[in-house]
């Protein structure tokens, strides 16, 4: 093959290669969403969040995550965090509210959301964030894995694995309904069919061990449920008699067969609509 042919092949390969990812304008927003094909960070004009004071019944968890996040934003040591537990109890809401609170206290902290399906691209995202002088909370909501899911291997590099490891300016927060990020029945099935049961699921289960903070969320009591609704009413100026509020709220949760922060917000949304109050 001649030198001219080699040069033409090299030129063709360069044209086929994707253009280098341009550094995003991190001044454009306080939060971003990572997309692939092509890789890009999309700014979020308005973050969907609940103010921190309205998150009721999780005081200790709130204070722990807030302190950890503020340490990180100030350039101090901080842990990756796994928020796990009951559905609808404010796990993702707490992450967004805490980041907003830290920003309100004067720290230039950015929130970057990463979808579980895009974990395979996390190395490219980290290289982009590593080049910035900002500090980022990388957030993955509803994180879990099935028995044939290989995305957890990419996540290990984010937490504390790999030669480069996690960039100093990136902290990883994840929410999950499962403490070990995989179904209990799958853990038991793999143990029962393995030659060495203790090693059968160690690789996947150990992933949750790499989070320095485990913050558990548990079902709320009826008093906490009602307190959430009262807080929403007060914040949005919805006036209703206490007896009526209590009776309707309890009936609403009975028809749903569940009691959580999400159910409280859904009831309040219905109540505000009936009262003619925009939220």
Automatic annotation (TrEMBL):
Residues 77-202 form the AAA+ ATPase domain. Pfam families: DUF815 (PF05673). It comes from the Bacteria. InterPro entries: AAA+_ATPase (IPR003593), DUF815 (IPR008533), P-loop_NTPase (IPR027417). SUPFAM superfamilies: P-loop containing nucleoside triphosphate hydrolases (SSF52540). This is AAA+ ATPase domain-containing protein. It comes from Salipiger thiooxidans.
